[in-house]
């Protein structure tokens, strides 16, 4: 299969790695100076099936699937998808990695075949994290959604289909809810940045890496399951909701968070942390793949 990767920054390079690891031919496109050199330095896979061009139309002219990873700006998406829609074969799916723009907005630039446009939003880095959020727009054909889901599954991904177009889709909204309260706790002076990170990384985050919020609640409810949890813990949880903060990212709060992160790092090299994180992610995913239900 010939896959075009449009935009070769961090996300595009990771998608390229994933496509190559699964045996696909990849043509990557990015007009930025030095983009090919940066891409080839970042791709952790055999590059014999990787070609590069700065011409977007050339990249997608013979593509079977297009994964777009341009900047998160509506005007730039319009420019990109005007070219992609005109140049790609009519049956080629145009998937955007957009983390927040609704696909119906992206489809406006596609006058030829808007029905083959959708969002295929990964989680960084896509070659490691299995989640892909598949979001159809108002004019997306159902067969296109099903084909995109099949393609992402063939890459070992775990695609989920969204039934509504929402700013930030689903996973980023869930993250934003957690960040909102984490920032509020810093603003209140209730806990340090390091302690908030520790509370998640050494507490519920360990279970969240295995099961989602509903199943974790269900398993904590014993024989009564989630119904028992909601009956007994629902009222106090509603009280907690009422007390959650509504912080604003003021200069003071932004500075406090940045200083807290620097204190937490305590001179540790970020590259080492990234390497350890990715190595542990690989071990965790391998272990999950050896289970029957996770």
Can you put this structure into words, describing what you see?
The structure is a single chain. The mean pLDDT is 96. This protein folds into two domains: 2-161, NAD(P)-binding Rossmann-like Domain (Rossmann fold, 3-Layer(aba) Sandwich), CATH 3.40.50; 171-289, N-(1-d-carboxylethyl)-l-norvaline Dehydrogenase, domain 2, CATH 1.10.1040. The protein contains 13 helices and eight strands. The protein is an alpha/beta fold. The protein is globular. An eight-stranded mixed beta sheet has the order 3-2-1-4-5-6-7-8, with helices on both faces. The protein is 51% helix and 13% strand. The protein has helices at residues 10-21, 35-42, 56-60, 74-87, 103-107, 142-154, 171-188, 193-201, 204-208, 213-220, 225-243, 251-265, 270-289; strands at residues 2-6, 25-29, 50-53, 65-68, 93-96, 117-122, 131-136, 158-161. Helix 10 crosses helix 11 (225-243).
Describe, in short, the structure shown.
It contains 13 helices and 8 strands. The two termini are 29 Å apart. With 294 residues, the protein is of the alpha/beta class.
Explain the layout of strands and helices.
Layout: E1 2-6, H1 10-21, E2 25-29, H2 35-42, E3 50-53, H3 56-60, E4 65-68, H4 74-87, E5 93-96, H5 103-107, E6 117-122, E7 131-136, H6 142-154, E8 158-161, H7 171-188, H8 193-201, H9 204-208, H10 213-220, H11 225-243, H12 251-265, H13 270-289
Helix pairs in contact: 10-11
CATH class group of the largest domain: Alpha Beta
Structural class, from secondary structure content? alpha/beta
Q: Indicate the mean pLDDT.
A: 96
Per DSSP E runs of 2 or more residues, the count of β-strands stands at 8
**DSSP helical segment count:** 13
Order of strands, widest sheet: 3-2-1-4-5-6-7-8
How much strand? 5-15%
Radius of gyration: 21 Å
The second-level CATH architecture of the largest domain is 3-Layer(aba) Sandwich
Strand/helix succession: EHEHEHEHEHEEHEHHHHHHH
Distance between the termini: 29 Å
- The domain tally reads 2
Mind telling me the CATH superfamily name of the largest domain? NAD(P)-binding Rossmann-like Domain
